[in-house]
Amino acid sequence: MTPRHVIIALSGVACLSLGAFASHAQEDPSVVIGVSRHLSDGATALELGNYEEGIRLTMLGLKSSTRPRDRIGALSNLCAGYVGTQNYDEALRYCNRAIRLDPNNWRAYNNRGLAYLGLGNLEAARSDVERGFEINPSGNSLEIVAKLVEQAANAPAAAGSSASEEASSE
């Protein structure tokens, strides 16, 4: 798998926290509609692949969000958005913050695993996927990320064996 294929695959696998924002807006729209609107719209933009807009809206929502659940979801979504823009260092920053607030947030581990994969740190990516599975054993996106990590781990070996086969046949 070439780095370009990894990048394309990464952008479609990041996990977003959509449900928390939608249900929160329905709980008490008179109090938090502005905050939830930004977070909800940001999550929707990220889901649609509009990463820059999703990041912008999520940042706006994060500024005025006080509920821990919303903040954790927003931080994980920012991580996913930065994975989508291939800014993996920034993605790590937000995933680390989400994990510090909630060490059992499997989405943040999934997203951080993608950021590590984008940086080529396969061991850290594998470790995060494993931790995500400990929290959520049936996570579909975790399964996809695990496969991407294994494909990336096997790609150099496959490329190296192809090169040595070509050299020996000459």
Which features characterize this protein?
mainly alpha, Serine Threonine Protein Phosphatase 5, Tetratricopeptide repeat, disordered N terminus, 9 helices, 170 residues
What features would you describe in this structure?
With 170 residues, this protein is mainly alpha-helical. The protein has a single domain (3-161), classed as Alpha Horseshoe (Serine Threonine Protein Phosphatase 5, Tetratricopeptide repeat). It is 82% helix and 0% strand. The protein has nine helices and no strands. It has helices at 3-11, 19-27, 29-47, 51-64, 68-84, 88-101, 106-119, 122-135, 140-169. α7 runs parallel beside α9 (140-169). The chain starts with a helix and ends with a helix. The model is unreliable at 1-9, 19-35 and 160-170 (pLDDT under 50).
H/I helix tally: 9
Q: In sequence order, what are the helices and strands, one letter per element?
A: HHHHHHHHH
What share of residues are in beta strands? under 5%
User: Span between N and C termini?
Assistant: 25 Å
